[in-house]
Amino acid sequence: MGCGSSVATNAREAQRSRLVVEGHDCNVPALLQDCSVAFLEQFAAAAEWKKYEASSYVINGPNTFCCMFFISRGEVSVHDTGKQTKNLSDGDHFAETSMLLNEEGYTIAIANTDCELLVLKREAFFTLLEAWTKLAPALFSNMDDRDQKHILEKNKGEGSNGKPFARSNLQRKSTKLMLDEIVSRMAEVQSSEGQEHLSRFVEVT
Looking at the domain that runs over 19-204, which CATH code has it been given? Predict the structure, then answer.
């Protein structure tokens, strides 16, 4: 019995370490390492697989992002206005903040090597958000301080371009779920600045 249990556990762990997207064997994003096998299957069904050659643009210039990217294999350099260039590799993700806020951003992302990326569109993200509520705080905790503050300051439900934060009923419901999770996480922040952002945020949600 103990041996059978061990085999089953090893099988589940093997399933959690790989996923197949559009027929391609891919690495599981670091953001999703703690989710269930069932959720990984949902993610795999929702994501798109794309390949980029070394030195090609993944993102080039101003854009209103409708998706975020996960690096399955390879290296990508990402530069956002006012931020340091980030060199990302297997398991990392990018373009999530602009996607969440539905606002225009200026980002340049270049494939440093041949890359395999998983692309998750905004509609699919909000659907997955309801399937695994830990996705919101996991995503939020991986953002830098500037992006976290930016998310909380957008408390009127609109991006800088005036476009609504959530356009469909599903997005509105899922966005509220995500914001509730973020507020819960921010409640742990003891600094006066953190509490100020939290109190402003709670008033509008």
Answer: 2.60.120.10
